[in-house]
Amino acid sequence: MEVSLAGKVALVTGTGPNIGSGIALLLAKYGARVACNDLRPDAAQKCVKRIERNGGEAIAIPGDVTDEKDVTGYVHEVLDTWGRIDILINNAALLGGLGILEESLEGFTRAVGVAANGNFLNTKHVAISMIERGIKGSIVSILSSNAWQGAPGVIAYAFHKGGLANFVRAAAMDLAPYGIRVNSFSPTAPEPDNPEWVAQFRAAGGFRPHPQPTDRPQWWRPIGRFDVRGNIPMGAAATPTDIGHLIAWLCSDYARLVTGCDFTVDGGARAKYWGYTPPAENAGPVPLVPVDVTPEVPLEDGSSGG
């Protein structure tokens, strides 16, 4: 049996060059036509070009996921172009932020608004389009390991990702009578594998920590440290390609009764007992099968996202 999304149309929000772009590419690889949304028109267009370079069909539908007029506008654009939407991937979100002692109300409200309003508006209007056309579609919201475990320094991110976990379950109940399935996927610090993004990342000198405030009070205490890669039992982080394979299956007819569930591809990280540290020597998984033929060239404008 082979998973096929041939004949299906997917709408992916937040198609910056990491997770969103990776999911969009894999849906196209499995045969779907993909509408690429992002707040930045150039990011959406770059995702389209990546899909087309790899033999897929895509269109760019830039817009603000928190603006109902924008959302209804690009949903209708997809319907006018291809006549249907079978798959919705709610990926748009603001990554990072600050902890509860330092986050501003403005920053908190904006981050929560992008996730909450974006998931609500896109799910509502795409679901209506499915119901009107008798389409028994699939909707997937992208969460985070922060939805299930507490981490310091990202209070708004943790709040909205955790809230989305139950949004998915409730939406699954609302839409089950129409044959529409709603699930979530929780990434765990995936390793970028978009050749353009990787090239830009290397040219910029690798990882750069999020800027921290410099005027902290005397009573301030450090939050501790993270060792994401050192706590993956299988010794290797997932990539957007790994994520895309699972989501493609989840959006296929083989998953016809799967709804209200969360999925992850994390090498066992979430299953791990919290106090366990895996050994440094690890055989690792089988090699990743590459799906992107894009040459390794830097992004033209230095944009980031995903």
| Proportion in β-strands | 5-15%
Indicate the radius of gyration in whole angstroms.
19 Å
What is the CATH topology?
Rossmann fold
CATH architecture term: 3-Layer(aba) Sandwich
Largest sheet: 7 strands, parallel
Shape: globular
Separation, N- and C-terminal Cα atoms: 31 Å
CATH homologous superfamily? NAD(P)-binding Rossmann-like Domain
Number of strands: 7
- CATH class descriptor: Alpha Beta
Overall mean confidence score, pLDDT: 93
Order of helices and strands: EHEHEHEHEHEHHE
Q: How many structural domains? A: 1
Q: Which class of secondary structure composition applies to the elements?
A: alpha/beta
Give the % helix: 25-40%
Task: Give the uncertain stretches in residue-range form.
Answer: 301-306
Biggest sheet, strands in spatial order?
3-2-1-4-5-6-7
**Continuous helix count:** 7
Any chance you could write out the topology, listing elements then pairs?
Blueprint: E1 9-12, H1 19-29, E2 33-36, H2 41-53, E3 58-60, H3 68-82, E4 87-90, H4 105-132, E5 138-142, H5 155-175, E6 181-185, H6 195-203, H7 240-250, E7 262-263
Parallel strand pairs: 1-2, 1-4, 2-3, 4-5, 5-6, 6-7
